[in-house]
Amino acid sequence: MAKPLVDDELWEVVRPLLPPPKPRRFRYPGRKPADDRKALAGIIFVLKTGIPWEDVPAEMGVSGMTCWRRLRDWNKAGVWDRLHQVLLSRLRHADTIDWTRAVVDSSSIRATRGGKKTGPSPVDRRKRGSKHHLLVDANGIPLAVRLTKANRNDITQLEPLLDDIPPVGGKVGHPRRTPDEVYGDRGYDSNKHRQRLKARGIEPHLARRKTEHGSGLGKIRWVVERTIAWLHQFRRLRIRDERDPKIHKAFLTLAAGLICHNFLNSTS
Length: 268
Known about the structure:
The protein is of the alpha/beta class. The protein has a domain at 98-242: Nucleotidyltransferase, domain 5, CATH 3.30.420. 38% of the residues lie in helices and 15% in strands. Strands 1, 2, 3, 4, 5, 6 and 7 form a 7-stranded mixed sheet that branches. Helix 2 packs across helix 3 (64-76) and helix 4 (79-93) runs parallel beside helix 8. The two termini are 21 Å apart.
């Protein structure tokens, strides 16, 4: 039997985060709203397959446009960010997050319809594109994700990514938000940012430009490249088809949450 898109464990995490439904009118209440769990399954189906919203199969029991509206509305309500935070807290409770180091990297994608947060891609003959920025722990668990224009320099997103790490609970005491060390490739070479990381109590390990390969950072940095590959297994993230960057960012954050959920299942 095929694995359900929304298993019971994931639904038990998501359900309390959803905003309450709008009250229905006493007279002429109209059609009942679509089931939230089916709508979430439709959203994840589009994220995984990359199909257009209008092609969501009728067998799923919910229309594609309903799924799109729920994705938009739940994003406005902060559901995807809170889902990511809750799953990170559960992973910390299970001693799965390794805070000794974090690794940062980015990946460019084509934006076929343009829109905000797109720009000429330096790796795709200057065609319109966007960039996914990612910060992971030593195991490859996504701690923070960001969306920018394809022509934004990687180093500009290093501190914003660190700021985007949510307060991760799951243990007695204060929530944690800061790794001990940060590793990055030559795109993050900046003495100014090295000093800023040290001021945060973080030891920087950023490769320097115009130096020979063989620094050994690749033995540590591979986890972020693997997580980027996991992100792009969600076909909707391989090519940006949304003009509204908020919708694409919602998909990106949901995908990060699903990767966290997979880590959580692997530890149980």
